[in-house]
Write a structure and sequence with these properties.
The chain has helices spanning 101-129, 131-155, 159-177, 187-196, 201-217, 225-249, and strands spanning 2-4, 7-9, 24-28, 32-37, 42-47, 51-55. The chain is mainly α and 250 residues long.
Length: 250
């Protein structure tokens, strides 16, 4: 086909191969082809003539390929094969455990992990949002860390730093444990809060005595190492006793 100034011109030939299966007389009916004629500006139809065919019996010695169900052979090229008949048979090369326990666990286990992870994250988010609850829960750990710092000052015989760190540990412990703001942190408020939670007077007095001793010792003449050891051990024991009392009273 060529495109020229006069339009599209050329010839296109379509060939079909027909292989007769039976001998006898046959006819090919006329075929119509309709096209638009530019010269007359109208549609025209061309019709082929009817073709009569006389099919003779083939040579039995000719090569044949394939055997038909009706036991009749057909002469074909070697690249043509007869269609297979009957129901196809398929075999899976993969042994998939559909419907087995492992199959269902493959879906259930990730779902359970997702639900558990959501519950844990949700719980942590709620607890972390409550700053006061977080500080209360970690008050003992924070106080112990500060007392460990005080212990290093004790070993170095740094009296002022030792007592200052013990005071920081006690004041910080009660501020976090009792949720008392720093602006309202005083001995009177601590005593009132502890009394409201049912803590006995002896334990409260022990803390007040430690506070008084540390505040006085910071500016007093040099204390003996034995006295500093006593304050350290007494503070450590008092905090542990307070933790047990508060847990029992909840």
């Amino acid at each position: 086909l060529n495109v020229t100034t006069n339009g599209l011109t050329g010839v296109r030939t379509v060939e079909y191969m027909a292989i007769p299966r039976y001998e006898g007389s046959y006819s090919i009916p006329p075929v119509e082809f309709t096209y638009f004629d530019l010269s007359s500006n109208s549609y025209k139809t061309l019709t082929t003539p009817e073709y009569a065919l006389q099919i003779d019996k083939g040579d039995p010695s000719s090569a044949t390929v394939g055997t038909f169900v009706n036991r009749q052979d057909i002469r074909v090229e070697q690249d043509i094969r007869f269609l297979k008949t009957g129901d196809p048979s398929y075999t899976s090369s993969v042994n998939f455990l559909a419907g087995s326990l492992g199959y269902w666990l493959w879906y259930i286990v990730p779902l359970l992990l997702l639900v558990i992870g959501y519950i844990i994250n949700r719980k942590q988010a709620i607890e972390n949002a409550n700053v006061a609850l977080t500080r209360t829960r970690k008050a003992n750990k924070v106080a112990i860390k500060r007392l460990k710092v005080a212990e290093t000052h004790l070993k170095a015989q740094d009296k002022e730093s030792f007592y200052e760190e013990v005071l920081r540990a006690i004041w910080g412990y009660f501020s976090d444990k009792l949720s008392i703001p720093v602006a309202r942190l005083s001995k009177d408020n601590i005593e009132a809060e502890l009394a409201g939670q049912g803590i006995d007077d002896a334990l409260v007095e022990k803390f007040m005595s430690i506070l008084d001793t540390c505040e006085f010792a910071r500016y007093a003449p040099a204390e003996s190492t034995a006295e500093m050891d006593r304050i350290y051990n007494e503070t450590l024991g008092a905090i542990g006793e307070m933790e047990n009392k508060l847990k029992k009273n909840r």
